[in-house]
Specification:
Order of helices and strands: EEEHEEEEEHEHEHEHEHEHEHHEHE
Distance between the termini: 19 Å
Bound molecules: NADP nicotinamide-adenine-dinucleotide phosphate
Shape: globular
Helix content: 25-40%
CATH superfamily of the largest domain: Medium-chain alcohol dehydrogenases, catalytic domain
Structural class: alpha/beta
Number of helices: 10
Largest sheet: 7 strands, mixed
Strand content: 25-35%
CATH class of the largest domain: Alpha Beta
CATH topology of the largest domain: Quinone Oxidoreductase, Chain A, domain 1
Oligomer: single chain
């Protein structure tokens, strides 16, 4: 059995707990495809898995190879696999379960059930595929299942230059919404405007609630919030009645417990808390959702920003960079 290099953790903690392992890679089992990774997507969820604290019940069995997302080339197929042949370019984002289950993308290669793979078209590079699939499917879930704008609707997107935020900003702009984005720096504001934001707010320098109300006195139709602790509760004051509050992440920390009566007191709101794995969780919905994403890139409606690449062996440095929040766009690890 060939040995492959992987990055794993044997305990929770900071980037220093990431360690290099040599693993034996068995041949693909029935219905599995062996994928040689060429680009691995770094997601905030990898940092959450590394740090711990997300598990209900018993904790995980260590060591855990991190990672939910990668692109690469088919090396071999197991029995029963149809539709994939060696040499084809493929990618995946999640292989079933929650983001902390069935991880293993931080490796030179991996066996993946064929049902979780998609083919990568010519116009998408491997790095783009690894940098866009999980984040794009997250955005796709919000666009298709949580809130679709009508003409004249304004939306507020927190951390609009982030990996998911910049895809949301472009997509909601493409759908005709007026897009307001909060950002952490003037450089990110510039990028967010290039990526579809009509207005940007430096939310570390000014209170975003009055700033949004100045732009849209009646309130926005939806808030898309991947920041969590620092933004969630004040965001209700930005919404118009019957608006949609969508919290999809906790980059600043978990949303604190709150009284659900708030939804009625402040404006008859809908609250969503999506998890990307639920949105496209059958082979047909996965392929259709990825097909739409790839098409949005082909037509230029969606541009995928690769903020930085790091060798897989330097995953700890990549985690440090991701945690500071100073980069804008996707981080990709190269095996
Ligand atoms: N629900 C799902 O299925 C799903 C899927 C993918 C991601 N997520 C979650 O969505 C969130 C964003 O993911 P992403 O891939 O877009 O992340 P990202 O590209 O790493 O960006 C995160 C951004 O959050 C902002 N931020 C605010 N407070 C922060 C803090 N204390 N530390 C670090 N960053 C902070 C920063 O932007 P500014 O400088 O502009 O403030 C930072 O760039 C994460 O919590 C992630 O776990 C959820």
């Amino acid at each position: 059995m060939p040995l492959i290099k992987a990055i794993a953790i044997s305990r929770h903690g900071g980037p220093e707990v990431l360690e290099s392992l040599d693993l034996e890679l068995p041949p693909p089992a029935a219905n599995e495809v062996q994928v040689r990774h060429t680009a691995i997507g770094l997601n905030f969820s990898d940092i959450n898995v590394r740090s711990g604290g997300f598990y209900l019940g018993d904790g995980p069995a260590f060591p855990i190879v991190l990672g939910n997302e990668a692109a690469g080339v088919v090396e071999a197929v197991g029995s029963g696999v149809e539709g994939f042949t060696p040499g084809e370019r493929v990618a995946y984002a999640g292989v079933g379960g929650m983001f902390f289950e069935n991880t293993g993308a931080y490796a030179q290669a991996r066996n993946v059930l064929a049902t979780h793979l998609v083919k990568v078209p010519d116009w998408i590079t491997d790095q783009q595929a690894a940098g866009m699939l999980l984040k794009g499917l997250t955005a796709s879930g919000m666009v298709h299942r949580c809130f679709r704008p009508s003409p004249g609707d304004a939306v507020l997107i927190h951390a609009a230059a982030s990996g998911v935020g910049s895809i949301l900003a472009q997509w909601y702009k493409h759908l005709g919404a007026t897009v307001i984005g909060t950002v952490g720096s003037p450089e990110k504001a510039e990028l967010a405007r290039r990526r579809g934001c009509d207005h940007t707010i430096l939310y570390r320098q000014e209170d975003f609630v009055p700033a949004v109300r100045r732009l849209v006195p009646e309130g926005v139709a939806a808030v898309l919030d991947g920041v969590g602790k620092d933004t969630f509760l004040p965001s209700f004051d930005c919404l118009r009645p019957f608006g949609a509050m969508i919290n999809y992440g906790n980059a600043s920390g978990p949303v604190p417990p709150f009284n659900v009566m708030l939804l009625a007191q402040k404006g008859y709101f809908a609250l969503y808390r999506p998890g990307f794995g639920w949105h496209a969780n059958t082979p047909a919905t996965l392929r259709s959702a990825c097909g739409e994403l790839f098409e949005l890139v082909r037509t230029g409606a969606l541009q995928i920003e690769i903020a930085a690449t790091y060798p897989l062996a330097e995953a700890a440095q990549a985690h440090r960079a991701a945690e500071t929040g100073r980069l804008a766009g996707s981080i990709v690890l190269l095996p």
